[in-house]
Predict the 3D structure of the following.
Amino acid sequence: MNILLRRSVIGAIAGALSSSALVATGEHPLLSVVLGLSIGAAYSATLRPTRGAYVDNLMAAASLGVPLWTLISLIALPLSFGQMPEWSAAQIRHLFPALVGWVIYGAGLGLTTQALNDIVGRVFGQEPAPSPTTPAEKKHVVILGGGFAGYISDVRAARPATGLVEDPRLAG
């Protein structure tokens, strides 16, 4: 199975399950489920699963709830309904339950994603480890002197793949 598809399906399931917090605190239940599902798929697809990292996933996803609340509840939803973003103190106070819902959604998403990753890892096996890449050999260049000649030498040494023909007089 494709790794990206596997992670996306796990995240979509976790997002759909966790979206109950968004449904309970939001004004648009169907939109809350769709948002929860799609955000969960994107969240899980971008992270490589680590066994047993429940607290890490809980905190990372819960903290993701604050910017999501800002972008979606304060800005995107009002704009999509033809209204101005809700930035005044009274409007934000009115949307505070949605903030709590987004943070609880994030915490649930993190825990559920981690649990599903652990279950799928036990049933279908862990994801294959990425192949290690061999680091390129680093070249160390010491430029003695300064001024314009030192700068030009540094620039030419930093861009060897540009196809510039080296001046044989500079090779010392």
About this structure: The two ends are 56 Å apart (CA to CA). The mean pLDDT is 84. DSSP finds seven helices and no strands in the chain.
